[in-house]
């Protein structure tokens, strides 16, 4: 069961990082015609900056755009030669805008569809990365549902194992329990040792699992770093949320073992 819970945690971490990585690569590019002046572009930039969804905007002059174009097509001399034959820079300036969420880009594009900007803006495009985020969310949801089902299955198996173990323990100590009742022991006095065992079992299992989880994260981090280009993602998350993770896992195991103990004692002990 703890394995399933930790699998859910890893899936959540990796999904959040993947979504964050894709979002960081999204921007909307506003391409201006070569006739657009710096004043026109700054006016558009100021207009866009008024939207609370906009995080930043970066302005590239015609010369910078041409330099980027040459760098991107450096291995294609025919394209470079075609540009040189024109004798002048055919490219216009570009304004690259980033928003807080991918869904905000369409709002910015729609806001620029006004008559005063039609003659200076040639195109407005942004990559189809929002679809990639949607696919990530879909995969995450499906994997998450599978892992939840797996957690429930493992929890049921663990419940039955613990229940049967306690049954055997109670059966082997039935004489001792009967003597305790004869001398006036209360119900909670009889239940006490089994509940303490449940507490100890929960503590030991969570401690062992947390140790294995930490070293597992240390092992996986180099491979995750290759994908997300950020070191220590898993280990960093574990260390910064260790208290929360311990409480969640300890609570889940303690509830499971306590319920198993109480159920077994209620059915097989007349206390």
UniProtKB/TrEMBL annotation:
Principal subcellular localization: membrane
Gene Ontology BP annotations: cell division
One GO CC term on file: plasma membrane
Subcellular location field: Cell membrane
Membrane topology: Multi-pass membrane protein
InterPro entries: ABC3_permease_C, FtsX, FtsX_ECD
Pfam families, alphabetized: FtsX, FtsX_ECD
Domain named FtsX extracellular: residues: 27-113
Domain ABC3 transporter permease C-terminal: 150-270
Transmembrane segments: 146-166, 194-217, 237-265
Keywords, in A-Z order: Cell cycle, Cell division, Cell membrane, Membrane, Transmembrane, Transmembrane helix
Keyword set includes Cell division: yes
Similarity section: Belongs to the ABC-4 integral membrane protein family. FtsX subfamily.
Protein name: Cell division protein FtsX
Organism of derivation: Candidatus Magasanikbacteria bacterium RIFCSPHIGHO2_02_FULL_51_14
Organismal lineage: Bacteria, Candidatus Magasanikiibacteriota
């Amino acid at each position: 069961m703890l394995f399933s819970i930790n699998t859910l945690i890893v899936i959540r971490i990796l999904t959040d990082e993947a979504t964050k990585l894709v979002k960081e690569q999204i921007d909307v590019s506003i391409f201006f015609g070569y006739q657009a002046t710096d004043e026109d572009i700054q006016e558009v930039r100021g207009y866009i900056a008024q939207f609370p969804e906009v995080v930043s905007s970066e302005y590239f002059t015609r010369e910078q755009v041409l330099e980027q174009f040459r760098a991107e097509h450096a291995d294609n001399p025919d394209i470079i030669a075609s540009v040189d034959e024109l004798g002048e820079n055919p490219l216009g300036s570009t304004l690259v805008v980033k928003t807080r969420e991918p869904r905000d880009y369409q709002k910015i594009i729609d806001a620029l569809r006004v008559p005063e900007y039609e003659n200076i803006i040639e195109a407005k495009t942004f990559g189809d990365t929002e679809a990639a985020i949607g696919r990530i969310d879909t995969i995450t949801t499906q994997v998450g549902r599978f892992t939840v089902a797996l957690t429930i299955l493992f929890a049921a198996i663990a419940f039955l194992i613990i229940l049967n173990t306690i049954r055997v323990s109670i059966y082997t100590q039935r004489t001792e329990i009967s003597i305790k009742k004869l001398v006036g022991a209360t119900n909670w006095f009889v239940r006490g040792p089994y509940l303490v065992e449940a507490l100890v079992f929960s503590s030991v299992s969570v401690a062992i699992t947390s140790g294995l989880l930490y070293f597992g994260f240390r092992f996986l981090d180099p491979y995750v770093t290759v994908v997300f280009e950020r070191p220590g993602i898993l280990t960093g998350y574990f260390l910064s949320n260790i208290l929360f993770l311990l409480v969640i896992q300890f609570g889940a195991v303690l509830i499971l073992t306590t319920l198993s103990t109480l159920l077994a004692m209620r059915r097989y002990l007349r206390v």
